[in-house]
């Protein structure tokens, strides 16, 4: 089980959290201007990163807040945890 | 002639409702007043309004509580708190808090019907919780003045260490599951319920 550090509650067991998939997906400002392919890319397509991956997690059983996690998809190491709107210490999100 | 009739069960000697040797002793504090409070931590008027009504500081430190008398404020999130008070106080407190918070970006919701409070005591109270809850429940990590939301098996709960046990706030819809789970898990320690 992963030990995930909630930015508010501190280190807690993975079973208290839910993963919300890839982080930092920006909704297009003018969806009408997009082609179907571009819209489909926004709605459906996600990176399948091997290595450091920015993910959204929510502390479901705890404070119920969303935050971001940089997790290595190979080693499962959690490299950074940061609140929405913040950038991880020492790197780009 | 005596005015009062004293009834005594022939099993009184066994103290069936409070076996002294039970490792886990459960007591429900039913019908407490539960109010969910939300507001802006960054607005000094929020904490001031709460203090004016309850006489309690709002716990801004995550996973801590403040208490006075029979009222406790629990930190639930960076903009969310729970107030538990004595039974039949909810309507009065809700009105007073709403009045004090008028004009603020805040909310007060009476959720008394949605959850109940249970206390677990006895020498194995921590052991039985640890069977299904991933928190570090040792006093060095989780002591009086703290609180935490977590889960016991599949049941979400709000835990608060007491001087001699744990207090659990459990949702109405999970209370059957919670009690059955605790009763089963506590069999090896001895389980009793007191009123
Ligand atoms: Zn949390």
TrEMBL record, chain A:
Molecular function terms, GO-annotated: sarcosine oxidase activity
Signal peptide location: none
Cited InterPro entries: SoxD, SoxD_sf
GO biological processes: tetrahydrofolate metabolic process
Transmembrane region(s): none
Domain of life: Bacteria
Listed name of the protein: Heterotetrameric sarcosine oxidase delta subunit
UniProtKB/TrEMBL annotation, chain B:
GO molecular function, one term: sarcosine oxidase activity
Family annotation (Pfam families): SoxG
Biological processes per GO annotation: sarcosine catabolic process
InterPro entries linked to this entry: SoxG, SoxG_het, TrmE/GcvT-like
SUPFAM superfamilies assigned: Folate-binding domain (SSF103025)
Protein name as it appears in the record: Heterotetrameric sarcosine oxidase gamma subunit
Provenance organism: Plasticicumulans acidivorans
Organism placement in taxonomy: Bacteria, Pseudomonadati, Pseudomonadota, Gammaproteobacteria, Candidatus Competibacteraceae
């Amino acid at each position: 089980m992963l030990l995930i550090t909630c930015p508010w509650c501190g280190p807690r067991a993975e079973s208290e959290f839910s993963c919300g998939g890839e982080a930092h997906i920006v909704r297009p400002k003018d969806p009408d201007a997009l082609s179907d392919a571009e819209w489909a890319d926004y709605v459906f397509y996600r990176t399948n990163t091997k290595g450091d991956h920015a993910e959204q997690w929510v502390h479901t059983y705890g404070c119920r807040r969303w935050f971001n996690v940089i997790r290595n998809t190979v080693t499962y190491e959690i490299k950074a945890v940061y609140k929405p709107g913040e950038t991880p210490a020492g790197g780009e999100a | 002639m005596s005015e009062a009739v004293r009834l005594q069960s022939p099993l009184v000697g066994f103290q069936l409702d409070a076996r002294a040797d039970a490792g886990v002793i459960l007591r429900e504090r039913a019908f407490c007043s539960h109010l969910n409070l939300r507001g802006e931590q960054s607005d000094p008027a929020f904490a001031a309004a709460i203090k004016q009504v309850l006489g309690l500081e709002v716990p801004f430190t995550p996973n801590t509580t403040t208490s006075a008398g029979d009222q406790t404020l629990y930190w639930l999130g960076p903009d969310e708190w729970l107030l538990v008070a004595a039974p039949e106080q909810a309507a009065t407190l809700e009105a007073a808090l709403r009045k004090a918070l008028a004009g603020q970006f805040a909310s007060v919701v009476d959720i008394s019907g949605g959850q109940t409070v249970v206390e677990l005591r006895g020498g194995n109270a921590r052991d039985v919780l640890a069977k299904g809850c991933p928190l570090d429940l040792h006093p060095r990590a989780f002591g009086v003045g703290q609180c935490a939301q977590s889960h016991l098996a599949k049941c979400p709960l709000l835990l608060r260490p007491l001087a001699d046990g744990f207090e659990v706030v459990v949702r109405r819809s999970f209370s059957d599951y919670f009690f059955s789970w605790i009763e089963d898990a506590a069999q090896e320690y001895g389980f009793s319920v007191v009123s």
